[in-house]
Specification:
Elements (H helix, E strand, L loop, with lengths): L11 H12 L3 H9 L2 H13 L6 E5 L5 H8 L3 E6 L2 H13 L7 E5 L12 E7 L8 H11 E12 L5 H23 L2 H12 L4 H10 L3 E8 L4 E7 L1
Parallel strand pairs: 1-2, 1-4, 2-3, 4-5
Antiparallel strand pairs: 5-7, 6-7
The chain binds S-adenosylmethionine.
Length: 239
């Protein structure tokens, strides 16, 4: 077995699929541990920017176990969470079934974020959390987000970032290289899956280039919101 979950080119998607199938049941716990619970705040920020509301339509790509999709639905929008991993979707659907609230405006769908199965101009808001970095082509994923957004619709991308301060960048990359795989080993028995975060980040251009790409694709009001000194970032734009 290869020593890494990162593979360039056409094998990338299969490897990423294997990775998330392997960690799906532990995914939520590990998110809390490796981010000290902070991912919840960052996702809340995404949902505020997405501004989904009753009567609107929201799409969350690479939805995983559904954190962002649940919050969009809670704000009243007809929401679809899309992911290609059945195992991650199983967790999301179980959460939906077990919810103490009756949630009628949320569904989870299997599909590829690089070939979104909706017509152009369908959604008021399109989000992705920790997803673009995992795609074979993040550019294709971004252009699909824009294609399915309505004119004026919001595009919100949350992912690991690359801090500009060299010292902070070193400390943070050391956390991703050492402590995060250790947490993966202890709590999921899978250090390789968590070492993948840093590997994939090295192949992802992160916030500044994503913002440039958004501008070149003619999005309006493009903004980067750096979190934790740029260790995390939200890219925002309007179609
Ligand atoms: C790191 S998880 C993020 C889950 C969730 N958005 C969150 O923030 O907790 C990345 C998700 O992207 C999904 N994914 C990766 N490549 C995909 C693709 N091409 N199409 C759809 N989903 C994909 C994985 O299955 C996984 O559930």
């Amino acid at each position: 077995m290869s020593n890494t979950f990162y593979a360039p080119g056409e094998r990338r998607a299969a490897k990423v699929g294997d990775l998330f199938a392997a960690i799906a049941r532990r995914y939520d716990l590990l998110n809390d541990l490796q981010s000290f619970g902070l991912h919840r705040l960052w996702k809340r920020h995404v949902v505020e920017l997405a501004a989904a509301k009753s009567g609107g339509h929201a799409l969350d790509l690479c939805c995983g176990t559904g954190d962002i999709a649940f919050a969009l639905a809670k704000n009243g929008a007809e929401t679809t969470g899309l992911d290609f991993s059945e195992k991650m979707l199983d967790v999301a659907r179980t959460r939906l079934q077990n919810s103490k609230f009756k949630i009628h405006n949320l569904k989870f769908l299997q599909g590829d974020a690089q070939q979104v199965p909706f017509p152009d101009n369908s959604f008021d808001t399109v989000t992705v959390g920790y997803g673009l970095r995992n795609l074979t082509s993040w550019e294709k994923g971004l252009s699909e987000m824009i294609r399915v957004a309505k004119p004026g619709g919001r595009i919100v991308v949350l992912d690991f970032g690359k801090p500009e301060n060299p010292l902070w960048r070193k400390i943070y990359f050391t956390h991703l290289k050492c402590s995060v795989p250790l947490i993966g080993l202890v709590f999921a028995g899978n250090p390789r899956a968590y070492a993948y975060i840093l590997e994939s980040l090295k192949h992802y251009p992160a916030q500044t280039i994503v913002a440039e790409k958004m501008r070149s694709l003619k999005l309006q009001n493009v903004r980067v919101i750096n979190l934790l000194g740029g260790a995390m970032a939200i890219n925002f734009g309007e179609k």
